[in-house]
Design brief:
The chain has one domain. It has seven helices and seven strands; from the N terminus they run βββαβααβββαααα. The longest helix has 18 residues. It is α+β, with helices and mostly antiparallel strands. It is elongated, with a radius of gyration of 16 Å. A hairpin with a 2-residue loop joins strand 2 and strand 3. The strands form two sheets. A four-stranded mixed β-sheet has the order 3-2-1-7. A three-stranded antiparallel β-sheet has the order 4-6-5.
Length: 150
């Protein structure tokens, strides 16, 4: 069984089976994985395609998405549920997501000093900032993630 860690504060890091594969993935494949993990809801192919390729025709955007899916299936067969209509992150599989851990810790009524320290160590900078530097179209995804997480 594979283990996946998404560290999204600061420079995004994707750690799969204790190996940092961030730079091995195309930026849009990273964006899809991150978006699905953070939103924690199935997303339609059309929605994802329109977020990633807003300036191209719908049919071309969907083809671009289809071209990325084999890589995502190969890299994350246990963590992604991909159907003909939707994509989703499988939260039943082992994973860690620093944004989720941060939100969970903040919701605890009483934190020990050690827990506060651990929570603050999760925060290494603004979430999604680097998604925007990869290109204007991916910036839309960061905005959509921020809206979904709010």
């Amino acid at each position: 069984m594979s283990n996946l860690s998404l560290q999204l504060f600061g420079q995004p890091q994707i750690i799969h089976n204790q190996i940092n594969i961030t730079r091995d993935l195309p930026i849009k494949a990273r964006a899809i994985l991150i978006y699905l993990a953070v939103t924690s809801q199935p997303q339609t192919r059309l929605w994802l395609a329109s977020l990633l390729w807003p300036d191209v025709e719908e049919s071309r955007a969907l083809k671009n998405l289809r071209d990325i899916l084999p890589l995502l299936r190969q890299q994350f067969p246990e963590h992604l549920q991909i159907t003909r209509q939707t994509l989703a992150f499988d939260r039943e599989r082992p994973y860690s997501l620093d944004v989720e851990q941060f939100q969970h810790q903040l919701q605890l009524a009483t934190l020990t000093d050690e827990q506060r320290y651990e929570t603050l160590n999760l925060y290494r900078g603004n979430f999604g900032g680097l998604l925007c530097t990869a290109g204007g179209t991916v910036c839309r995804m960061a905005d959509a993630v921020a809206g979904a997480a709010a």
